């Protein structure tokens, strides 16, 4: 807490910048008002815009530089300090990075010691391992170290500290110049004919562009990171086996069969069953809600249906594992004790279990999208059909649904891409056995569950058994992306019809 | 106003096709049609005119019970077609609408081919026993709709690709394909340009030979051109009903005269 209000602490710096920002707002607003002797109609823009403009000039460059500075400074310091550590100081089985984290810890420990008063600033700077037991001293301030501090580490830590302090003061100086400079420019431009409103408008545009490009850049970043790891994987494992082999048998001692086909089969099979459940039920629900239900029923039933969409998928997974799975076993398994007297199903996890529950999860997805699309079919179509003596269901079947069909196909494809990417339900409901089989009562596994299992536990990010997760993820991504693009294309084509 | 009348007004000999008696329509609490009684003759074009919101479209939609599709709408009174009460519980509104065709304000072809648009009604009502009979029905309807020559080479092109006037004539063809006895038209030309309007008006005049046509219009010139009888609605009341000539030349009610001369409306 004390650290928070230390001179030079970032929090305090940001607080000062914000206070000056508010000050600039008030100052410029009142100045521009007094320049027209209080008659706001003589201003180009409303008085608040001058204030906003001043606040922007004060805060944005300063905060922007601050953010960059905080990212860049540690990197620069690290690069400067890392040269001080000779190769000999790096122990067997360790790395420079581990030593660097020791350096940082010692530096933080010295900071803490100075702050709590155990050390004064000068002795922290000039301390020597031969004279002081640094490890014990730091342990006293709550910083535990794994080994004794070597002279190199201590020297590096001391340098680290001094550079950090210098950097901090430099940062404060630069930020102050930016803030005061911004305020100065704002005050200079605070004249009645200054087009503050247009400047604010441009700023808002910039803000929106920034948000949009951040979202896009993130997507690109995700794809690239997956792509590089995937390339690493294919350097270690033949791509022919990955795409065309038929066995999935990862073995952490090496020499694994890592083929996507059994997983892809499980994924598609489960998604297919899910769509078999979700599409008819969702579509019929949408038809009822949009065509037949009166306003009262609609107002009550639609939110209720959409609650299904808000249930976390892990809860669906539990439902699959604890309710649906055992029920299916009761029907299809247990031999003479079962409801059908057959013994086709042995465990609660199966393609059918996961597919049914995933289908339930997708119902609101299909129904809500289809409902919107059916509602978008112009009433004049229905009137035209009624006017020719068609019944309600004839109208729906022959006019409304054909008109809405492209949109509904789009909705189904979006649901399919959800189903393919779904994880928790299949982790709990589908089982973990990779196989290609047509029997829906058998356990199978999917791409997503295998990604989870390959990356959990102790993993070494250099073995093909771990890296295969990225190849699987990328394949999945490409698959769902393809489906989404297809769905969007279809939906867009449909929209053009009535506009 | 009467310079381009196409029809003669020798209509007094026709029998009554639709008889409305004391019809009241409510939208929730709003009293939209107040005690309207009117006799509409067979093989005649009857025009409903009046300012916006006067209830003429509402009354038109009572004749084929299209108002049934609106939840809050209630209709009281009797409407008889050929002496049969269409609001009787024994009457199936779906069957009724096959007998009383309707053309809407905005052309609303289905997103299907031209052929399928016209064949829609006959298919639903099972009017054709086989494909060639259906072809005949479609051809006849398109000819009645005065659009056959324009579309005969592209019957399987989408109906939505036609121009506005063609679409409206397609909708008329679609309506006559089910062999209705009455044809209701709700401002059929309001979305059309003058040339398409003229074509549709000519068509309406031809249709009079077989059907009882009721047309709602905002254009008094159109009412004068195509109709033999005119009803003037105002604020939910039927103000005046009679021969078109008489309504436009010597209206009895001062409100009718004010509307026709442009003082109200």
From TrEMBL, chain A:
Pfam families: BPD_transp_1 (PF00528), DUF3708 (PF12501)
Identification of the protein by name: Phosphate transport system permease protein
Record field: transmembrane: 6-28, 49-72, 169-190, 202-228, 268-292, 304-324, 344-366, 399-420, 467-491
Function: Part of the binding-protein-dependent transport system for phosphate; probably responsible for the translocation of the substrate across the membrane.
Main location: membrane
Membrane-topology annotation of the record: Multi-pass membrane protein
GO biological process: phosphate ion transport
Subcellular location: Cell inner membrane; Cell membrane
Entry GO MF terms: phosphate transmembrane transporter activity
Record SUPFAM superfamilies: MetI-like
Cellular component terms per the entry's GO annotation: plasma membrane
PROSITE patterns: ABC_TM1 (PS50928)
Keywords: Cell inner membrane, Cell membrane, Membrane, Phosphate transport, Transmembrane, Transmembrane helix, Transport
Protein family according to the UniProt entry: Belongs to the binding-protein-dependent transport system permease family. CysTW subfamily.
ABC transmembrane type-1 domain ranges (all copies): 264-487
InterPro entries, sorted: MetI-like, MetI-like_sf, Phosphate_PstC, PstC_N
Source species, domain of life: Bacteria
PANTHER family on file: PHOSPHATE TRANSPORT SYSTEM PERMEASE (PTHR42727:SF1), PHOSPHATE TRANSPORT SYSTEM PERMEASE PROTEIN (PTHR42727)
From TrEMBL, chain B:
GO MF annotation, one: ATP binding
Record key words, sorted: ATP-binding, Nucleotide-binding, Phosphate transport, Transport
Record carries keyword Lyase: no
UniProt xrefs under CDD domains: ABC_PstB_phosphate_transporter
InterPro entries, A to Z: AAA+_ATPase (IPR003593), ABC_transporter-like_ATP-bd (IPR003439), ABC_transporter-like_CS (IPR017871), P-loop_NTPase (IPR027417), PstB-like (IPR005670)
Ranges where the ABC transporter domain occurs: 18-260
Protein's UniProt name: Phosphate ABC transporter ATP-binding protein, PhoT family
